Amino acid sequence: MSIRLFIGTSNIEDNWIEKNYLYSLFQNSNEDFEVTFLRPKKFPKWNTFGWGTPFTCYRYAIPEICNYKGRAIYTDVDMINFRNMKHLWDTDLCGKPFGMCWDALQDNGVKWRDTKLERGWWCDSVMVIDNEKCKGIVPSTEEIAKAKSTWKWIFMEDYLGSPRKEKGKEFVHTLNPRWNSFDGKNASVYVDGNSDLQPDFSLEEIWQLHLTSLSYQPWHPKYNPHSKANYKRKDIAEHLWKLNEKTTMIAKSHEF
Amino acid sequence: MHIKKFVHDTIVYMNPETEWRYPRANSYLLYEYRHDGNHYATDFPHFKRMRKFIFDSALKNAKYYKDHDSSIIAHCSIVEHNEKSFAVPMRHMAHAYYFINPVKGIVSSKKDDLRKHQAYHDLRFKSTDKIDIDKFVQTEKWYHFPAEHNSVVYPNPDSRYIYVEYVV
Predict the structure, then answer these.
(1) Does A237 contact chain B (CB < 8 Å)?
(2) Which residues of A, range 192-221, sit inside 8 Å of B by Cβ?
(3) pLDDT-derived band of residue B131, with 50, 70 and 90 as boundaries?
(4) Contacts with A220 from chain B: Cβ below 8 Å
């Protein structure tokens, strides 16, 4: 059985990282993949106003796309894989609809400011999804398509318990944080407000790298309004550019 | 490695970005001086290897300044134009262009107001000061403009060049 992988991405602006991510996936796995890119051009009638990325809410269309059958993996596009995805695919969700990592430093905004819950949220940028169990939990695509930009956050609060981790465990199985390492960090560890202080994973410890800080993304997609900044982890930057050298030669062999 | 080859490799290996200096063009930011000390430099390996050569090449040809060792590059990027892109006038810093393939021309002026010279160019009139309009720009050669000196590039749809800004 092939691994059904959905990747949230833009129409063309993230092609650079798409090829590098796919290469890393195929490099680390002998499994068959059924890859579906979730791009804006495939969802022409959706209300995308106010989304933080060009693909923010498409991931919640996955259970319906799969006819509420089987399981699926969802990831954002800004990733590099280091471990066979079969291990993630085979994760025992313990009867729950979702598997996600916990993002201990997610800023939960004004509503939770100055409370004990001002930080920490389920992170839906890597998800293992039991499509059947999502029936009755995740709304229809028709409903999500019309929703306001805040819908995702309200859904994750109402149905997935965020920012109350213990409450959310009824619906979300906690994944190993190595499956969603934010720029090399262990994002599940709470430190006082500053992600720089979170512990680093070594390259060998990372299973799935998430190049999540938009300023640091070396490919800086055109929709990104942030100024470019130096990538802090030079070992990661070096790995990425070496990988890019290979994939570019494959993708653009006519240029050499 | 030759500068022309470096520009080609940058465009092949890096992802096209946007930049206010050249709206709608594909740009590739290589270096930017930041006042907080966190200067930006891409990790693109070809640039790491070529950085000193490019910067030295740009500055040693800056005829307005005798001592290029005391100069600082403040911005360095590569631009690739298309049918819809254009360049905005530059003025706020000393700057230079290195054209890989032809542009339609450069209009420049020492005066604050570049509009008259741009209009001459746009209307195909001859300028009263021919030095300020150069339609015969050569490729693979640095063109320098000191601070407070306006310049604007008229690109062709496929024009490629390196653009640097510097201070002394």
Answers:
(1) yes
(2) 218-221
(3) very low
(4) 15, 17, 29
Token duo for residue A37: 């890119």
Average pLDDT of B125-131?
A: 52
Count of residues making up chain A = 256
pTM above 0.90, yes or no: yes
Q: Which two tokens stand for residue B11?
A: 């465009």
Please, what CATH class does the domain formed by B3-167 belong to?
A: mainly beta
Is the pLDDT at B69 greater than 70? The verdict is no
Tell me: the pLDDT tens digits for B40-60? Answer: 999 999 999 999 999 999 988
**Any idea where the domains of chain B sit in the sequence?**
3-167
Structure tokens at A66: 């799969």
Predicted complex ipTM: 0.92
Which range marks the domain in which residue A39 is found? 3-255
pLDDT at A200 over 80: yes
Residue A129 is part of a domain; what is its CATH number?
3.90.550.10
DSSP secondary structure letter of residue A200: B
- Total tally of structural domains belonging to chain A: 1
Query: Under a CB-based contact definition with an 8 Å cutoff, are residues B153 and B71 in contact?
Result: no
For residues A38, A42, A44 and A50, what is the CA-based torsion angle, rounded to 10 degrees? 10
Q: Which tokens is A136 given? A: 């009755």
Residue B18 CA to its chain's centroid (Å): 15
The token pair that represents A222 in the structure block? 């055109």
Sort out which chain A residues have CB atoms less than 8 A from B12's CB and list them: 248, 252, 255
Lowest-confidence region among A55-64, B95-104, B108-117: B108-117
Q: Residue A255: list chain B partners with CB under 8 A.
A: 8, 12
Interface check A223 vs B, CB under 8 A: no
Mapping DSSP to helix (H, G, I), strand (E, B) and coil, where does residue B165 land?
strand
Residue of A nearest to B8 (CA): A255
- pLDDT tops 50 at residue A63: yes
What A218-222 contacts at long range (C-beta under 8 Å, 24+ apart), as own/partner pairs, is A218/B15, A218/B42, A218/B43, A218/B44, A219/A14, A219/A16, A219/A17, A219/B14, A219/B15, A220/B15, A220/B17, A220/B29, A221/A10, A221/A13, A221/A14, A221/A16, A221/B15, A222/A13, A222/B16, A222/B17, A222/B18
When pLDDT is averaged across residues B65-92 and rounded to a whole number, the result is 85
